[in-house]
Amino acid sequence: MIICIEGVDGSGKSTQTELLAKKFESEGKNVKVFSYPDYESDTGKKIKEYLHGTEPVEVKTLFKMYLDDITKDAEKIKEADKKGVVILSRYYTSTIAYQCAQGYDYNEAKKKALSSGLPAPDIIVYLGVTSQESMYRKMKGGFVLDRHERNVFLIENVLKFYRKEMDDNFPGNKKWIAVNGSRSIEEIQKQIWEEVSKVAARIENKAARKKLRT
Ligand code: ADP
């Protein structure tokens, strides 16, 4: 099962990813977490340089860089999916929202994401917070804000593109679950678990039926 946790910076992705992984582990499941950007990778290092620099970079180059950083793990994600639960903190859905918010063509972005060889998630949990909340939480956490995090206009635009992806039901099959990310960590965790466990049960039932038939 592939679960994707989405939302702007400070929406609580890392917090909820960790809690969800622990919950699945406590149920005896094999869990693998992937977080993007992957700052340990070569592409991730370039992304970090860009985020903490001031040089303008063409949005086409940015899109490729962010998508490549994820596609390098395509086989690992597929393997982990076969063995258990995969939790992705950001995915191509982030790449689309952030780069289209900076002018990349939305249809081209969706096409590239779909032909990247990356598997589609079974559920996308979207943590909704306002741009003010996003910035406030990052500043409160004592982080040095990067060029995305401190740009309120960009965050506003990213929020619009997340909404567009949700309205378009990208990449299909009604995968998005919108969660109000402004509530307490515990309330959010509870709602995520309710939604995710429903999908997990559906997938397990389907697998069991398939096994019976063979
Ligand atoms: P992201 O991974 O989306 O950037 P984090 O999980 O790192 O977000 O959270 C950013 C900051 O906000 C952290 O200091 C975290 O403790 C705090 N935080 C996370 N969820 C909540 C919440 N529901 N309410 C208040 N603060 C939160």
Q: How would you characterize this protein structure?
A:
It is a single chain. With 214 residues, the protein is an alpha/beta fold. The protein has a single domain (2-213), classed as P-loop containing nucleotide triphosphate hydrolases (Rossmann fold, 3-Layer(aba) Sandwich). Helices cover 57% and strands 12% of the residues. The chain contains nine helices and five strands; from the N terminus they run E-H-E-H-H-H-E-H-H-E-H-H-E-H. The protein has helices at residues 13-26, 42-52, 59-71, 74-83, 92-100, 106-114, 131-140, 152-167, 185-213; strands at residues 2-6, 31-35, 85-89, 123-128, 176-180. A five-stranded parallel β-sheet has the order 2-3-1-4-5. Helix 1 (13-26) packs across helix 9 (185-213), helix 5 (92-100) runs antiparallel to helix 6 (106-114) and helix 7 (131-140) crosses helix 8. The structure holds adenosine-5'-diphosphate.
Number of strands: 5
Number of helical regions: 9
Structural class of the secondary structure composition?
A: alpha/beta
Biggest beta-sheet profile: 5 strands, parallel
Rounded average pLDDT: 95
